[in-house]
Structures are given as C-alpha cells and as structure tokens.
Amino acid sequence: MASLFRDRTSSGDSKRETRHSINNNNNNNNNGNPRSTLSVNLSSPFDDLGRPISDAELRETAYEIFVGACRTSGGKPLTYVPQSERASSASPTTPSLQRSVTSAAASKMKRALGLKKSPSSASSTSAAGKGSPSSGGKVRRPATVGELVRVQMGVSEQTDGRIRRGLLRIAAGQLGRRIESMVMPLELLQQFKASDFTEQHEYESWQARNLKVLEEGLLLHPHLPLEKSDISAQRLRQLIRGAFERPLETGKNSESMQVLRTAVMSLAYRSFDGIPSETAHWADGHPLNLRLYQMLLEACFDSNEEGSIIEEIDEVMELIKKTWVILGMNQTLHNLCFTWVLFHHFVSTGQADNDLLSAADNQLAEVAKDAKATKDPLYSKVLSSILSSILGWTEKRLLAYHDTFDSSNIDSMEIIVSLGVSAAKILVEDISHEYRRRRREVVDVAQTRIDTYIRSSIRTAFAQRMEKADSSRRLSRNQTSPTHFLSILAIDIGDLANKEKQLFSPILQRWHPLAAGVAVATLHACYGNELKQFISGVTELTPDFVEVLKAADKLEKDLVHIAVEDSVDSEDGGKSLIREMPPYESEAAVANLAKSWIKTRVDRLKEWVDRNLQQEAWNPRASKESVAPSCVEILRVVSETLDAFFQLPILVHQALLPDLVSGIDKSLQGYIYKAKSGCGTRNTFIPALPELTRCTTDSKFHWKKKEKLPNTQKRRSQVGTLDKEGGSFGLPQLCVRMNTMHHIRAELENMEKRLVTSLRNVESAQLDISIGPDTNFELSIAACKEGIQQLCEATAYRIVFNDLNHVLWDFLYVGEISTSRIQSFLKELEPKLEMISNTVHDRVRNRAITAIMKASFDGFLLVTLCGGPTRAFSRQDSQIIEDDFKSLKDLFLADGDGLPEELVEKAAMPIKNVIPLFRTDAESLIERFRRLVVEAQGPSAKSKPLIPVSSGHWSPTDPYTILRVLCYRNEEAATKFLKKTYNLPKKIY
C-alpha cells in the first residue's frame, strides 16, 4: 500500500497545509489534534479503560493500526519516501489523483448521510494539479489520502516517519506475514531503542504508551476472559509494572523483550476452543477497540472547518475499514460507532451544523435495522450506552424545548426530536426485556415520548409565565386597580398556546397526531390548578374574582378550540383530550357563592313573610286597591332581590336564576297558603244531608216568624272561628284575600317578563332567552289560582249556608210554602253581592259572584230535595218552586248587567232538569223509580229493592233524586210505597 503515502495534489487546500505546518511544529508531542481544545460536554458512552490512556496516545496507536492495516492490504511493497520527495514527485496522472477528483466532486457517502459539499471543496478542486513549493513560506496541501488522515489525526511527520520505518523493518523480518497476525505494540517495541528518539523522555513516553496498550488489550480488557491462574498473564503484569518503574531495554535481541514476547504471544493467540488462533487478539477487546476506532473515525471531520466532513470521506472510510480485522469490528459496530462520532462531533463543535446532526439521525436509522437483527450481548450493551447518552442529551433540550428553541433555531428541533425518538424506540423495542415481555400490548414509543416532552416543556414554560405574571402583579401594586396576576397569566398562557400551535406543534405532529391538543390540555390543567386554589380562598363575589373568571373563561374556550381543531380527524374525535380538560370549577365557585347569596335572600324573605302575616289584619281600607299591605311589602322585597341578583358581577345569571326563582316561589307559595288558611272550603259550609224520612198528608205545620221549631236541622260545625262580619275572616277580609292573591299573580306574571329583559341585558345571556319551567313562579301562580278559586267558593258557601242560613235552610219552604218563599233570601243576599262588587278586583269579581250563584243554586236544590221533615210539597207547589227559582236567576242576571246569561243558564241546568219532578204525580214517579232501580240493581230489585246510594249529582234519571222527591211528596201513594218498600215511618220526627 505504498501508494497510500505517495504524493497527492488533487485534494486538500491551504487550510490543511496550515494545519500540517502546525503539526510540524509539534514534533515532540502527540497532542496536536485541534479537537483536544474543543469543549466537549458529553461523557463517553464506552466503558472506562483500566489505565489512564490519553486521547493523544489512543490516536497514535489507532494511526499505527491504520498504517499497518493499509500496508498489508496493498499490492506493492511498502517503501519509505521522505516528505520532501513525496511533495516534489506529485503527478496529476497518478491513481490517487483520480480518486481525489471523484471524491471532491460527489461523495456517495455524504449523499447517503444527507450532507452537502463542504464550502472548501470547490477551491480544493480548482486548485487540484497545481504544485505547491516546499519552501518560500507557502503552505502545501496533503498530497495523498494517507497524508490527509495523518493531518486529520494530528500525527506529526516525525512520528509518521518512525511508524513507517518500523513497519518496513517488521516487513523485512517477517515477509508475507499479515498485520492481523501481529501484535503491533510488541513488534514496534522490538524495532526501536532509545537511540532512535531525539530525547529520552520521548522514548519513555512512547514505550509507556505501547505497554499500556498491551496491558489494556491483553490483561484489563482482553478479547477472551482471563483465568486468575494464567501464568502468562501474571508474568506480563509483572513485566509491565516493572517497566513503569524502570524502562525496558527494547530491541530485537534484548532479554527483556524475549520474556515480554513470550508472555504477549501466549495471551494474544488464545481462542475459545483452545487451538491457537491465527489472528492476534490484542486490540479487539471491549472497550479498547471502540476507543481506538473512534479515533480513526474522527479523521473524517475536517480539522479546519468545525462540523464539516471531508470530501474524501469515501476513500478515507474505505481505508479505515481495513482496520476491522485488527480491532474486531464489523458493519454493525461501525454503524453504531459512526453514529456516536457524528453526534458527538455535532455537540462538541457548538451544535452549529444541523447537517451533521441530520447525518447522525440518518445513520441511526441503519443502527435501528442492525438492532433488530443483532442480539449479541456486548453489542446490546454498547448500543444501550450510546443511545442512552444521545437520549439524555436530546431530552435535556426537549423536556424544556420552549427554552431551547425559538424561531431562529427551530430547524434543528425536528432533527433533535427525530434523533431522540429513534434512540428511545431502539432502547425500548429492541433492548428492553420488559417491552418484549409485554409486546402484545400496543405501545407507541414515539408518541409516548413526544407526549412526555410536550407535557414537561409545557409545565416548565407555564411555571416561567407564572413567575412573570406574579412579578407584573407586584409591580402594579401601587396602581388604583391592579390587575390580578391570574388574569395576566391567562393572557400569557393564551399566547403560549398560540406559539405552541404555530411553531412547535407542526414539527411534533410527525410523531404525535394530537401534539397541539396535548399541549393545550396540559396548559388547561396547569392553569386549572392555580385557578382552583384561588377559588378555594374566595368567600364573596368581588370584582377581582369576576375579572379572573372572565379571563379563565376566555382562556378555556381558546384552549378547547385548539384541542377540538387538532383532534377533528383522530380516531375518537378528540374525546380522550376533552376528558383531560374538565371544565374549570369557576362556574361551580360562582354558583356556590351566588347560591349562598340566594339562600340568604330567600331566608330573609321567609322571615318577612312570617313577620308580616302575623301583623296582617286584611283591612280593605288599608290600601286603595283593597290589597293586603303585607303582600305589597313582600313583593317589594322580591323585586329588590331580583334587581340585586342581576347586579351581581357573575357570568352565569341564567344558570343560577332557577335557584333564586324557586326560593322566591316557595316563599310566596307559603304566604298564599297561610293567607287562605282558616277560611274554609265549599264542603266546610254545606250541611249534612238529613236521614231519609216521610211526611204524611195529615201533617200540619204552623211556622211563625222568629219561632224556633223543635225539629229544625242543626248546621254542621265549622272549621276554625268563622266570624260574621268582623275579625280577620269576615266577608270584607275574604275579599281582601282574593284581591291579594290576584295582585300577587299579576305581579309575578309581570316579573316573569322582566326576567327575560334582565337576562338579555346581562353579558352572559343569549338573544333567544325565554322563561322556562325552571325560571317562572309556577308554584305561586298555581297557588294563587287555586287560592282564588277556594276563597270564592268558601266565601260563596259561607254567605249562602252560614251568613244567610236563617233565611235559607231555616226558613225557605218551612211549613206553609206560600209564606216562606225565596224573597227573604234574595233580600239579604243582594247587599252581599253589592259589597263584593265594590271590593273585589274586576278580574276576580265575576268568579266570586259566579261562585255565589252556584252556591245559591246548590242551596235551593238542597232545600227542595233534602230539606228535612219540616218540609213537604204537593204537585201544586211546583209552580211556586219554579217562580222562586226564576227570581233567584234574575238576581244574578240583573236585567243584563249581571252575569252572562249563558253562564247562568248553564249553572241552572241541574235545577231546571229536576223541577219537573215536582209537578209529576206520585204513581209516575214510583214507576220511574222502580224501573231505574231494576236497571241499577238487577231483576232481584223487583221483589226486594235496596235503598239507592247518592251519586253526588241531582238528576231526573237518578233513583236517589226521585226517592228524595217521593219522601217529601205530600201524597198518599208516596206514603204507602215508601212504607211498604223501605218501611219508612209515617210519623214526622
């Protein structure tokens, strides 16, 4: 491989010559590599060596291996040509030149890695073929690939010359022996003595380096494990220890070298099967081989342009691969080491060249393929270490990518994410035993990792925004109305969410389809935690509280909008993200505070109801409208409460209004119930029907005015204290109660309309607001309707059966019918009607008078059908009954000024149907009665009919109604029939 070191004029440039000149000035040390001065912030992923061997020492050893491997693979014998001669004999027609031009023009390897041509390549190519003088102050370019590697590795010409001389001597003594069968440090130690070095110190450093390499490769990290009892290992260990105290005498014929050689050869040619190996294993033990190979790979980086790979990488890499047989390397280990070197070089050169990082990412794709096919434990260990280092570096940036990236360097983010995700996938999917045990489960490593990066970085960014917002709050303390820091924070978080969506999410979506959604969901949770703490300390509705809630509400809507937009095409339509974003508890907090406010107002209203009712006298003169003052006062409180509610600084009036309305509704319902309590009902005043009895034709009654009759039916006892005209239950007071309930109903209906207007005026309301079942006074209005009806009926039946009982039940048709007619009742009923007309509200008046009319008609029917034994009618009396009933109807018609005729006629229909029974003869009534009883009770009723039961309605087709008419019929036929059929007594009781 002599051509490796022959002159090359087709590649390289003045920068490399400058570098070469620098190396010439450092002939006495091996630390000429410029990368030794770089700030490397990554620790090596390879295991530590047992001996402290510097990078310069490893580099020189690697260079020796490189030169030796290239020597034995060449077709021509190796010859030594001085540097000056190599430079002057360069020719453009040499094969090296042709390879150089091709490499400079288009590197296949760089294209595969996605790398662009170096800026210096053009000038290098244009300068190709132009000779450079060896003197005159001008620097010259490396002439061959071998010289290029030497310059890149920082090996001086002096060191290079000594190595080549040593290899020539070795080749002369062992002609035809391949380099992989030699132990190079041993062979080189045998070729040189102290006299071959200019200084004793240089010789001792050189010897110590070779001995340390032998110790590393054969004793500390051998290719095959050593047994503790191995004699050769013990002897070599003693020799090396002694050499560090006193240098060995080297040379072919020295005794110490012979002992050393015996020990080294015994250890280097060991094999697994016990048969001596043909290959010497002295540099292929881990991690020595990887550290040496790393030194060779770093020669691929241009020493004059940080982050740039040389254009001749194809040729250089072809030669580097010749060392695999010595270092125990293969393609998979090469791919792994080259990935690390690319990545390490990007980091150590200031992270300026994204192409270099992209190359590492592309190379990692090859590693991923190898990892799936290679299950060697040692490979897996190295793989895990390198990937962990890469992943650790990327995650330091990605777990807080808001601090790492912005619009100026966002281009590098995608490459770093890709690199980190790829490393994580290999670590988890191809190395992790736990993953393999659980591989049936669906685990998306990339998406899980990106999810972690997003949430971590978002939380970090949120904490920074919080601190910034808190600082703004402290600076604004002296302002009249400083903005709450949570309001400031909500604005900042909104900006952060937009930045995330526009800048970072488009990149992260390559690995996580819901990147923006995850980000805003995390922001939603972070802000929600702060909001929750704030809300927990609030005890009343303050402007600050409302301001924060408004800001939080806007922020939440913006975040949810982004989440929905981001997840519209996802499998679940974004349901999982939305579940991560439960609504803020702000509405609940507002509701709690507002409900507390509502409860206080409702409780106060209940107290007003109780207190005012206790003082209420229901005096019709207390107000112009004859409405109870307590009602006016309570409605005023209700109105003020509603006005105050809509003045509350909240956003959810419509949601909370049902609670307030419900409380008011129940309080007013209680007022209404208490207002009608004790007033009685229709049934309170209707007397109990007397038992069935019989009047005979010879019964004679002589009733006189004011004379108490012995058999007068007693009235039913009343519920409570029912006053005549005075007290709180007199007729005027009942009228006030009716007016009060009507007033409440009218006011509540107006309030419901006001509620609609008020809701439309508040900020949170919509234009289509309407009062629903939850926001109206349903209970109170229904109670008013029911109360008015009850009071109308109670008042009517009280007037008819209580107040006018003496002219109705105790007087009408008692004794002589012609002297006890309806006029007395009408005379006393008329002023009652007039008082009601003058007192009760117009909208209630007809209902009250209608109730009195129905009560009067009921009373008239009860007197004629169930008036008791003091009454008896003949067929001739039917005309009087008809005339009296007409007079009763005329009272309510009032010559057209009273109730509508249709209403009166409808109410009179039951009486009009029954009156014809009074002019029907007894035989006809009996025959009709028997027929109806048989129809109701069956054929057995012909021989033994049962007494019919009242149906509750008087009707000419009702047997009970006919039976009552017969009981009070003053005819012999009726008397005999009742005695025979039901054994009713003839005697009047």
From TrEMBL:
Residues 34-43, 81-105 have a biased composition (Polar residues). Residues 546-689 form the MHD1 domain. This is Protein unc-13 homolog. It holds the Pfam family TPR_PATROL1. Residues 1-20 have a biased composition (Basic and acidic residues). It comes from the Eukaryota. Residues 1-43, 74-142 are annotated as: Disordered. Residues 819-929 form the MHD2 domain. PANTHER family: ELONGATION FACTOR TS (DUF810) (PTHR31280:SF4), PROTEIN UNC-13 HOMOLOG (PTHR31280). Residues 23-33, 115-137 have a biased composition (Low complexity).
